């Protein structure tokens, strides 16, 4: 047996799973097809949003609160600053489902926040133009994560705890028989008692029963120059999500003293082969986001100075998959995080480690059960 638990894909969630397994003293091995901290899948592009007052629904809040604790633990262990908690503005029509979910999260879990009406927004955050009927809620437990640093920090911390890390090794097959799982790479076969699939946009290749329910989607990220960069620093410009009539976008303060990331909070179309993601960003990809920037963020020049394309696995209901792979005893899947999984990856890693070793977790994952999709 090469390890107790094998982790297939050491990206966002896989690196955190490996770290959590290794912390528990479990003999673990991780396989990654690219280099550690690469930008070829879901974790590239310099920054990710962390937020707790969750517009996707309050059922995520316990996972997010645990994720926050683990981000701080990973920072302490690795010596890297991974999460800058500079606050987050959730902007939308007062009666929208997203804003109702934000408020429900706040009320149910007594999250630190401020409700900002239009005069307060004009006074404190004049970078944003507000529409009639829009309101903003400042989530005080929100901020900016550094994905490449985070994945590397977790993977190398796992290694320091004794995990084996095999990079540039593509897993071509996973076979579960009796009490063992055989993992095949082009070079050799490995065996483990349990396997955890954290292969992101590639995951459904290993779980045919989920194929029609989880699809890779392309996401384009765009950075715009600020006319006055000093107004867009982390101190002055919280991360934001705007979910309103013609604008479903998120934004992140400048990390390079000049450009501000503002990008669509939605995917751009299915990726038929994740090995061949179209990374060319065309003018048609940009028209809508440029118009949103011109309308809602007049302090930015509405012509991006940097663009890039990434992808994530999306499920048909927008909720991730966390649990036993359908029809498999010793194989688990954590995938399909549908454009919002990075912030919770530390806690997902804990959940993955607990499932593979105990078969259960105390964190609430009922809404993420893959069995809801098994054909
Ligand atoms: C542009 C963009 C912006 C986003 N913004 C946010 C945000 O602000 N906040 C947030 O919380 N979330 C955000 N998300 C979502 C979040 O980044 C993803 O949900 C999360 O990173 C998914 O993690 P993952 O581990 O499932 O996938 P990945 O991070 O892609 O990891 C999968 C890994 O598996 C490896 N792999 C695949 N197949 C194999 C194989 N056969 N053998 C070996 N290795 C393999 C891949 O190379 C990869 O490293 C965003 C996503 C995108 C694309």
From TrEMBL:
<dbReference type="GO" id="GO:0050660">
    <property type="term" value="F:flavin adenine dinucleotide binding"/>
</dbReference>
<keyword id="KW-0285">Flavoprotein</keyword>
<dbReference type="Pfam" id="PF01266">
    <property type="entry name" value="DAO"/>
</dbReference>
<protein>
    <submittedName>
        <fullName>Sarcosine oxidase</fullName>
        <ecNumber>1.5.3.1</ecNumber>
    </submittedName>
</protein>
<dbReference type="InterPro" id="IPR006076">
    <property type="entry name" value="FAD-dep_OxRdtase"/>
</dbReference>
<keyword id="KW-0274">FAD</keyword>
<feature type="domain" description="FAD dependent oxidoreductase">
    <location>
        <begin position="5"/>
        <end position="355"/>
    </location>
</feature>
<keyword id="KW-0560">Oxidoreductase</keyword>
<dbReference type="InterPro" id="IPR045170">
    <property type="entry name" value="MTOX"/>
</dbReference>
<dbReference type="GO" id="GO:0008115">
    <property type="term" value="F:sarcosine oxidase activity"/>
</dbReference>
<dbReference type="InterPro" id="IPR036188">
    <property type="entry name" value="FAD/NAD-bd_sf"/>
</dbReference>
């Amino acid at each position: 047996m090469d390890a107790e638990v094998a982790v297939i894909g050491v990206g966002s969630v896989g690196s955190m799973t490996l770290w959590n397994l290794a912390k528990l003293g479990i003999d673990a091995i991780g396989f990654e097809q690219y280099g550690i901290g690469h930008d070829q899948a879901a974790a590239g592009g310099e920054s990710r949003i962390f937020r707790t007052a969750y517009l996707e629904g309050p059922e995520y809040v316990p996972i997010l609160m645990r994720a926050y604790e683990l981000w701080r633990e990973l920072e302490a262990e690795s010596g890297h600053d991974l999460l800058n908690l500079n606050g987050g503005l959730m902007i939308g029509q007062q009666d929208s489902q997203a804003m109702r979910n934000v408020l429900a999260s706040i009320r149910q879990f007594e999250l630190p926040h401020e409700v900002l009406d239009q005069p307060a927004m004009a006074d404190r955050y004049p970078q944003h133009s507000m529409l009639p009927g829009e309101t903003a809620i400042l989530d005080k437990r929100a901020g900016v994560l550094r994905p490449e640093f985070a994945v590397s920090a977790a993977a190398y911390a796992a290694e320091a705890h004794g995990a084996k890390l095999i990079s540039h090794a593509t897993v071509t097959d996973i076979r579960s028989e009796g009490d063992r799982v055989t993992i095949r790479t082009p070079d050799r076969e490995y065996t483990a008692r349990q396997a955890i699939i954290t292969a992101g946009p590639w995951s459904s290749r290993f779980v045919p029963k989920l194929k029609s329910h989880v699809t890779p989607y392309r996401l384009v990220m765009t950075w715009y120059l600020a006319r006055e960069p000093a107004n867009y620093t982390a101190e002055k410009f919280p991360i934001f999500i705007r979910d309103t009539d013609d604008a479903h976008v998120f934004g992140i303060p400048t990390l390079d003293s000049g450009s501000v990331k503002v990008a669509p909070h939605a995917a751009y179309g299915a990726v038929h082969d994740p090995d061949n993601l179209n990374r060319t960003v065309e003018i048609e990809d940009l028209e809508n986001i440029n118009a949103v920037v011109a309308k809602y963020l007049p302090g930015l020049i509405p012509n991006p100075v940097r663009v890039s394309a990434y992808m994530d696995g999306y499920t048909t209901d927008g909720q991730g998959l966390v649990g036993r792979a359908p029809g498999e005893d010793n194989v688990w899947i954590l995938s399909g995080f549908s454009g919002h999984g990075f912030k919770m990856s530390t806690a997902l890693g804990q959940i993955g480690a607990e499932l593979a070793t105990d078969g259960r977790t105390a964190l609430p994952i009922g809404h993420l059960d893959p069995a809801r999709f098994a054909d």
